[in-house]
Amino acid sequence: MKKILSALLLGTACFATGAFVARPTAPDEITVPMLRTAQQLFGLNFNDAQLDSTRRNLSGYRDSYEALRKVPLPNSVAPAVGFDPRPLHMRQAQLSGGGSAGRLPATGKVALPANRDDLAFYTVRQLSELLRTKQITSEALTTFFLARLKKYDPQLHCVITLTEDLAYQQAKQADAEIKAGRYRGPLHGIPFGVKDLFSAKGYKTTWGSVPFKEQVLDEDAAVVERLREAGAVLVAKLTLGELAQGDVWFGGKTRTPWDVTKGSSGSSAGSASAVAAGLLPFAIGTETLGSILSPSTACGVTGLRPTYGRVSRAGAMALSWTMDKAGPLARSAEDCAIVLAALTAAGPDARDPATMLAPNRFEYAFGNSIKKLRVGYIKKAFDQDYPTKANDLATLEVLRKLGVELVPLELPALSPGMLRFILTAEGAAAFDDLTRSGRDGQMVLQNRSAWPNTFRSSRFIPAVEYIQAQRVRSLLIEQMDAQLKGFDCYITPTFSTSLVLTNFTGHPAIALPNGLTAAGLPTTITFLGQLYEEGKLLALAKAYQDATSFDEKHPPLQ
To answer: How many whole angstroms separate alpha carbon 51 and alpha carbon 449?
Structure first.
């Protein structure tokens, strides 16, 4: 009995003389026989090879449990998850609308380029002026970008499905409306793509994974609906690493256009690659633990991860209900702001309870002086030695020259690493049927770090430890709020502790191109903002991009 409980609880406790006693030290090495016995209590039937692969993950989880137990948790600390007893129709009835995001800054005169291929790297704002002034039609732009997608996808492997028929239908409608004087705004007639974990009625939604490659969902995701309302034209469903991990999917490995021998990172792999290569003006991706910021870096685009709950995830594949976030990848911070305004214009979405938490609607803040912003920087992170340090320090110097006073800032002492199994536990729940049916064996990657093994491992996470992790997450949220008190934004190297931390606290972030490596690959730096204050964050990012030209660089595709 003691052996079974050790396996089941992985060090939580043991029984002694009929009393429940906390175990002072972790049990011995986790073994296959131990797991074979434990899984009987869960009604599981993994084979010995599968159990052997889970052992390393379970040891890591146990280390996290031990770290969590050292964090004082008074009874008053509730988990960082919520319960809403209202049925969907009641939530819908109480929603307030979104509304206009305000005025964009004036744009100069935009003309068609002498070389039509240069349109590939025009911003959304520039293309919208061409459409608004009737210098080009949406149908012509759609034809242009579809041709580029078809030409370069064989090199980049960034497209799963072209929505060509729908695209031409929407483009023709946009042209007719613009001609009639019914201009909807800066996305009217602009082609775009979505990561193929968002549903689009009439087209496959594959989630990048073999078991789902023929899946058709009879609904439009919220982001597809809202961009359609803004007049944008859906032309492609783009690749993602299988079930939103990495850049390998059932059709191969998505590449960065800066070096097609290298992957584009993930999991918004196709969204970043297509935008970087000038195959689309913008695309929609998602992030749970780096899936917008990381491919933005690999591909040299501007990627915005909005505040958790800012953009509806209805109609999107769920990986982690308490961490998933949707956002745009584009050429500039201004373009990201335009897309975010469209995604949030209708206000909260009852289908996604997280959207009902936002205390305000998104508004442009480009008219504000960035000199009035209080901006921090994580000095400890910049003081370390890392490959892109020179580019990052140069970014800080540009901001100082713009009149921004950079104030040293420290992040909370609590380590976010011990919370990582929150994601894997929720992911295992989201794909429970895939795991128990054995269909996970059809997936492309089958190594110890791939989803099949991670999901199996996560079946052994005790419910108590998951809830305790969510309670520690509540402490982390409060500590982050205290550390950021009085700040509008802060700056950090892209791949720092802040990346994991803020995915747990829900803060918005934007990755900005800020140079190239010696090998000619792009680098980024990350600006982060207060919860629901994307306006100020994007204003600071735009000021940096207006003062530099890194966002205007593009790869030399052949």
So the answer is: 14
The pairing of strands 406-408 and 375-377 is: parallel
What H or E segment, with its residue span, contains residue 500? Answer: helix 497-505
Q: Which SS3 state, helix, strand or coil, does residue 314 take?
A: coil
Q: Which of 128, 265, 291, 312 is catalytic?
A: 291
% of residues, the chain, pLDDT over 90 = 89
The structure's pTM equals 0.93
Q: Assess whether 195 carries a catalytic annotation.
A: yes
Q: Which of 267, 294, 312, 458 is catalytic?
A: 267
Cα gap 11→62, rounded to integer Å? 7
Check residue 89 and give its pLDDT: 82
- Condensed to tens digits (0 to 9), the pLDDT of residues 120-170 reads 999 999 999 999 999 999 999 999 999 999 999 999 999 999 999 999 999
User: Looking up tokens 């899936």, which residue turns up?
Assistant: 291
Q: Hey, what are 335's tokens? A: 């373009």
Question: Can you spell out the DSSP letters for 74-102?
Answer: -TTPPPS-----S-HHHHHHT--------
Give the pLDDT band (50/70/90) at residue 25: very low
Distance, in Å, from the CA atom of 558 to the CA atom of 210, rounded to the nearest integer, reads: 31
| Residue-wise pLDDT tens digits, 394-441 | 999 999 999 999 999 999 999 999 999 999 999 999 999 999 999 999
Q: What are the tokens at 219?
A: 């609904």
Running DSSP on this structure, what letter comes out for residue 204?
A: B
Q: Do 137 and 175 meet the contact criterion of CB atoms below 8 Å apart?
A: yes
58's tokens? 């379970």
Q: What pLDDT was estimated at residue 21? A: 44
Given a cut of 90, is residue 82 above it in pLDDT?
Answer: no
- 194 forms beta bridges with 237, 284
Residue pair 362/474 in contact by the 8 Å Cβ criterion? no
Residue of 195, 237, 253, 542 with catalytic role: 195
DSSP alpha helix (H) spans, 300-431: 333-344, 379-383, 389-401, 421-430
Question: Which tokens belong to 513?
Answer: 């191109």
Quick count: other Cβ atoms within 10 Å of Cβ 49?
8
Q: Which residues of 60-72 are buried (b: 16+ CB within 10 A; e: fewer)?
A: ebbebbebbeebe
Nearest-angstrom CA–CA distance, 142 and 189: 8
